[in-house]
Amino acid sequence: MIANEYKELARWAMGQALKNGCQAAKVSLNQGSSSSFELRDAKMDTLQQSAQSRMSLFLYVDGRYGTYSTNRLDKGELERFIANGIESTRFLAKDEARVLPDEARYYKGGKPDLQLLDPNLSALSPDEKVAMARAVAEEAMGKDPRIISVESSYGDGDSFSYLITSNGFEGETAGSSCSLAASVAVRGEGEARPSSYWYESSIHLDGLIREGIGTKALERTLQKIGQRKTKSGKYTMVVDPMNSARLLRPLLNAITGSALQQKNSFLLDRLGQKVGSDKLTLVDEPHLMGAPGARYFDGEGVATERRVVFEQGVLKTYYIDTYNAKKMDTEPTISGPSVLLLKTGGKDLNGLVANLEHGILVTGFNGGNCNSSTGDFSYGIEGFLVENGALTTPLAEMNVTGNMIDLWNGLAETGNDPRLDSSLRVPSLLFEGVDFSGL
To answer: How many other C-beta atoms lie within 10 A of the C-beta of residue 123?
Structure first.
């Protein structure tokens, strides 16, 4: 956790802001460290290690609002920094919607530790980290004569934050993460050089999967050899759990306060309406122990709580922070999601594919975008043609197009295989009647 001396410094900074002209203030202090060991063909290529401390001040001055950050945490320098910030804020336009949350909405403490920090990470030596990355590479090296290169890496980090506001909030958080990854490139047909990757990550070192990463990366790469387009048309689409969250993000972006307030959302005024199929049930579980994204309060200090986002396709809530709630003259909810769980079905990815007579399995998205106002989207994809439950032609240079509301109304089945190392726990997904363009 952040040392008491730094917490005292944050309290002192808030006092300085209030004493020198702020009507309200918020101060956050963030500290963290990270390391990354990248190998090429099992030999050290890049090493990065860093540590940083940063203080951010949120100043409310005469109906105006300014944010300022610095990593120079000396009192003498901070005194000048705060004074300059206050004076600079006075030049900004007034914005009466910029206020601190109602103190009744703050997290009051007293709940059990969410187990988001692994203290053992700091005891791991550089040699041990390199050895893990090298073992990942050795799973793939020499296993196929077409291999051009094998890249592998180990990375970890920890972060600590302390937040106080002038109207009574005080809270701190701590978290850690570690990961192993592999990427393999091979000689394909002609001049093609297909490549792919695999990774595993965890909050706790003892939960990090260390085997099978290089093997999986090589397997995924070899499957790409011979990629081509197939005939344009409507297909049943299955999306694997490495990529399924990509299709959920436009829905989440459309229910944020900023998108709604700016009327830049295809889900504006759709609260309580059915916007997806019965298979679309999404729940925010912010207090899930040991889960990436778990938290008791958001960046404003507002207490989180379980909330149903979509229930059998019906939109049940928006994510509206204090500022955008004031701008829209509505009640705030919370500034953003924490841990999102899409309701799962009974089959894994292989099970969904096995029952597919004719369709496309998507294993990667390559560029594209979604129009936030209309929900119309177009994404480049790669994957496989599926015929009679078997993967046949590897696909590339194709596009999937449509509208997000139409797409999610076509959700016919969900898998049981979400990645648990993500705050978006979205399993494999099967959609009916999706437009693909190729030949």
So the answer is: 9
